[in-house]
Amino acid sequence: MELYSISINKEKDILAARDRARVICEELGLSITHQLQVTTSVFELGKNILEHGDGGDVSFSLYTDDDDLKLEVVGKDHGPGISEEDIEKALNVGTSKSTANRGISAMKRLMDSIDIEAEPGIGTTIRLSKMKTKSSKSLAKNIVSFIQDKFTAKNKITLSEELRKQNMNLVQTLSLYEEKNEELQKKNKELLDLKQQLELSNTELQDRSSELQEALLSLGDRTNELEAQNRRFTAVTEQVPGGVIITDRSGVVTKANRRFYTLFELENESVEDLQKVDWYSFLSRYKTLAEEEWNKIVTEWDEQRSDVHPFMLITQTESPKNIICRIVPILDDKQKFLGRIWIFETPSVG
Question: Please, which pLDDT band fits residue 100 given cuts at 50, 70 and 90?
């Protein structure tokens, strides 16, 4: 026995169908849980009709089976409907939150039974049922008449009921407006606070920018000064009659003058940027001492960094010549070790 039927052409029709489902469930005496299951399934059924067809219908019917009542909800779209492949996929999908709470998967999970008939290009019919056990047939007949009368009466709205409905809608709209207004005021306050924070940050940024510009100017002046000092230092080292090597505190060669390369007749070899171990290896090529003695004086260089260390080398050229080297420490005003100057000279003939 059919209780009610409604056309589904717009989203508001889905809400109306869900409302009718709730009333039917209440009159049948279904539990709150079953009511929620049926209304949710009707909502998903309506969405399915709009999604897969050009509108459709949802109908509610009541059947008896001995002392049990069966509420049947049938949804049919006007085509093209759902493909058999998509139906099979939906019926066999898992129960993850992302799938089980939507569409056919939700209807299958929430209702007692589901049956789907698909006619390609024509439409899809979905039958859902929910059982209420231990209910008499006479009760079923009375409920059917009661619900039918109730829905028929609802379709004949009086002027008073229409005004009351409009008034309720107006109150709801006003309440919603007040909520939105409060939200807007809150957002406006947040924006004002953010504006103040941005203004404060902008002021701090301008101060930091001024400080940075001053620092950059100072750095530029310092860089120019260091470049001038470096040019003067280079000019001095080039005027020294002997070869000059500068190493930093870690022993890396940072500078070598032209006279050094001339003494050792190095045309295509550079010693600048050599690490300490490589610099020591370079010097060992010209040592005049035995290996053991040489290693001994090299150890003294590292252990006595603040002392002057003289030693002798000999070139490996066609005309070998002796070269005297002196290691002079570079110390600051607090006697802190900064590096070394290596001075190479040929012995004067007296």
Answer: low
